[in-house]
Design a protein that fits this description.
This protein is α/β, with parallel strands linked by helices. It has 10 helices and 8 strands. It has 2 domains: about 5-210 and about 310-315, Spore Coat Polysaccharide Biosynthesis Protein SpsA, Chain A (Alpha-Beta Complex), CATH 3.90.550; about 230-305. The chain is about 50% helix and about 15% strand. Strand 2, helix 2 and strand 3 (about 65-70) form a beta-alpha-beta unit. Helix 1 (about 15-30) packs parallel to helix 2 and helix 9 (about 230-255) runs antiparallel to helix 10 (about 270-305). The longest helix has about 35 residues, at about 270-305. The two termini are about 25 Å apart.
Length: about 325
């Protein structure tokens, strides 16, 4: 591999002011081990804590640092998408800005890339989040792996290295606005391998990803890469229909031929409780099915409008970009 080749490190940022200077210094300190040219592309996703000015200063003072400023907060996945479109490297690393993705792991990602792998994803073998969060992550990845038609590696996040060929496919051949990056890179295929690492605790500040953000990301992963929820709706509707039909036949027969079940006749029991439970069950099932349909229809609605999933308001760099 020629020393003239370049890797781009794409880092989405939202309110990470306490981490930015240290992260940049640590990346530069690690860069000698990569034995390859590099650029760092920060994507400011509508920060309000002074991160934008800090990143602007880093970009103006370091030739290898560039900054994309988005016009508002679009979310992590659109910010990553913006960075992938701007990055010029032969390989592109995607990582977080909070030190949970250690910069030292990039060396191993680069080694696998140099060995011929086109997608090198990092696998979180240890997490420092609360027990409930780790449990929910584990359930989500395994559920997604079961219902998806593609193999999305377990416990792999956005931290990865993508070859230019893969980046071009993501940028040019996958135009959807709702983007679940770890699913898209799995769908793209190519030669892939995982690298295990220990996910560290956040260095400073508070995470921008709250429960609602994580829940939305989980829904994006499920509804963007599987139609199993629709199939479950069909099976549930079929089950309710067959059950209702069977009960109807049962009561018709009982009306014609009076008989007892377990010593009781259906006529002996008022049945109000069972009727209410049945109505609530059927009504809840219908509402659930409408909600699942709404998730798919909402995604179709946003895709049809073809609005961009990010808007760049400013590019800051102290070198000319081709």
């Amino acid at each position: 591999m020629s020393a003239q080749r370049l890797i781009s490190i794409v880092i989405p940022v939202h309110n990470e002011a306490p981490n930015l200077k240290g992260l940049c210094e640590r990346l530069i300190a690690c860069s000698d081990k990569w034995k390859i040219n590099y650029e760092i592309v920060f994507v400011d996703d509508g920060s309000t804590d002074g991160s934008t000015n800090l990143l602007r200063e880093l970009a103006e003072n370091h030739e290898e640092v560039s900054l994309l400023v988005l016009s508002r907060n679009f979310g992590q996945q659109p910010a990553v998408n913006a960075g992938l479109h701007y990055a010029t490297g032969d390989g592109v690393v995607v990582m977080d800005a909070d030190f949970q993705d250690p910069p030292e792991v990039i060396e191993e990602l680069v080694e696998k890339w140099k060995a011929g792998y086109e997608v090198v994803y990092a696998i979180r073998k240890k997490r420092k989040e609360p027990l409930l969060t780790r449990f929910l992550y584990s359930i989500f990845y395994r559920l997604l792996n079961v219902i998806s038609k593609i193999n999305i590696p377990l416990d792999s996040g956005d931290f990865c290295l993508l070859d230019r060929a893969v980046v071009d496919v993501l940028n040019n051949q996958m135009p959807e606005n709702t983007r679940f990056m770890r699913g898209l890179r799995a769908f793209a295929g190519f030669k892939q391998i995982g690298v295990e690492y220990e996910r560290h605790e956040r260095f400073a500040g508070s995470p921008s990803y709250n429960f609602n953000s994580l829940f939305k990301l989980a829904l994006d992963g499920i509804f963007d890469f599987s139609t199993v929820p629709l199939r479950i709706m069909t099976l549930l509707g079929l089950f309710l229909s067959i059950t209702s039909f069977g009960l109807g036949v049962f009561f018709i027969i009982h009306r014609v031929v009076d008989f007892k079940v377990l010593g009781y006749s259906p006529a002996d029991v008022p049945g109000m409780a069972s009727l209410i439970v049945s109505l609530f069950f059927i009504g809840g099932s219908i509402i659930l099915m409408l909600g699942i349909l709404g998730e798919y229809i909402g995604r179709i609605y946003f895709e049809v409008k073809r609005r961009p999933n990010y808007i760049v308001s400013e590019v800051v760099t102290n070198k000319n970009k081709s």
